Amino acid sequence: MTPQPARRRRGAxxxxxxxxxxxxxxxSQMITTYGVGSLIAVENExxxxxxxxxxxxxxxxxxxxxxxxxxxxxxxxxxxPASSDTSRDxxxxxxxxxWHSCPNCNTxxxxxxxxxxxxxxxCGNCQEDLVPSRxxxxxxxxHIDDFPYWKWAHRDNRTAEASGHCRGTMRMRTSGRTxxxxxxxxxxxxxIPEVSMEGAFRRSALxxxxxxxxxxRPWLKLAPAVPCAEPPRTLQRGSSAAWHPIIRSALSxxxxxxxxxxxxxPYWDDLRSLDRSEIPLFLKVLTMRNGGEFSTERVLxxxxxxGSESTGHKAEPGGGAYxxxxxxxxxxxxxxxxxxxxxxxxxxxxxxPTTESNELTRLGLARPMLVKRLREVRALKAFSRVExxxxxxxxxxxxxxFADLDWLPAMExxxxxxxxxxxxxxxxxxxxxxxxxxRVERMRTHHxxxxxxxxxxxxxxxxxxxxxxxxxxxxxxxxxxNEWSLDGGYxxxxxxxxxxxxxTMAGVLIYTxxxxxxxxxxxxxxxxxxxxxxxxxxxxxxxxxxxxxxPLCIESEASGAGSVNLAACHACVLLPExxxxxNNGLLDRALLVGTPEDPSTGFFRSIPHR
Length: 610
Hints:
Elements: H1 29-32, E1 39-42, E2 45-49, E3 62-63, H2 66-72, E4 76-78, E5 93-95, E6 99-101, E7 107-110, E8 131-132, E9 135-138, E10 144-146, H3 149-153, H4 158-163, E11 170-174, E12 184-188, E13 195-196, H5 205-208, E14 233-236, E15 244-251, H6 255-264, H7 268-273, H8 279-290, H9 296-304, H10 320-335, E16 349-351, H11 358-363, E17 369-384, E18 407-421, H12 424-431, H13 434-454, H14 468-487, E19 495-502, E20 505-512, H15 523-527, H16 530-544, H17 590-593
Parallel strand pairs: 4-18
Antiparallel strand pairs: 1-2, 2-5, 3-4, 6-7, 6-8, 7-11, 9-10, 9-14, 11-12, 12-13, 15-17, 16-17, 17-18, 18-20, 19-20
């Protein structure tokens, strides 16, 4: 039994030596696209991004967002390090997959067996650049390994299977007859019949070969293989299923809470250890000792958003800690924060428009709020493979480092947005409709089944967040984003939604999601002016009444992954997945405009047309 290496101290992460530069990506891509554990192609080579404990973070910028940091159990966040041709290395990568083939002689083997010249990745006999394996195998626990070519090619040769080797040389070629896996052929010089890769992607393909996951984590240099009972799956090296980022985010609002957090910093551990009934007395003593007022209500709200065990909240999406954080954001988006004179560094400015519109009131919307300035911090908490993470779906979170670090990689986005609220009385009355409840219950049933299937313990699977108001808000956000992408000149991928939905909240924030030229030029705020917003909403609702896939779309009994949608498809409602909080799930445009059989199902169809 191999002993497990000792974990390094918290905060470690600076390598002792520098390595050759092998390409570059944007810093933001280190969070969303090429984060730890992902596969990245550099020219003719393929690498896996190494763990954060191997990064050179000496020059990395610190990102402050205390509420999110406490929620994720770290001290702070770091912007991924930048490097140039003259600087030391920043983010490390390691060669993966290790099986390569030569395009000239078709030899297929481990890269070390090609006798490549020093510093070159080429066939020692042909002097041709090697081609990394197109296929890898991974499991839902996040482990990843080379595809078992030898076992795949010798699966019908019992003699070779029994001995575990054949002393032959394997080759891979493409027949060129089709673009399918049937044309990818594997052979061995031992004389076995040539086989194709057809069928390799079946869910049970590797299990039937008695291939087991060996628990390898090649992105972590010091991590040994761990026991794993998950069945491995064949994946394309560049497939999105090979790496799914698990990102947690928070808006930097309200700004006054940051001052309170700084004042309470020395006493935070004491506050978390106290019973709630003891906190007012503790704050009273603190006030007498240090001066200044400490609002018990605000301190309790911070503890609710803290995510610590003492609050009894689960620090996961859908858990109480994230809900408390969203409620804080909702309250300040609702109340607003005016721009202070001379404060150009103010991170959050949210003001009501100077004009009003009776049309919005007739549509069932409260007065919008113009978010002229906001800051969002997005932190890479972990990642998953095979199964895509969802806000309410449990997936295994693969670790970013083997050492115990006190930081996470993150990025910050400064932008703008529009905050919309629905009339509480009207949405409450509409949501109790029998037809509305029946549609949402179908979606909720399918989503619950999906959550149970993907949960490690079906009895403790998270509940579905699908409610009439949540699905309505979600679908409304999608049609507005689509409308703004057509009318306002914004690409849909440059906008994001942030939903606020429970018994006390009924709002949605639509805001810019990029830090480039589409970020904060004032265009989104202009869309929130009441008169323009009313016209946009009417246009979006009119467009939502018909879909090019109708009548199939509007009459659909279930659609989308896991059948969690109803009337929603790529021709009418769906968005780029980076813009949606729920991976394009829990959508139904019938809740906006109704169905031909029952127009009253739509929240806005009960309103007379202009």
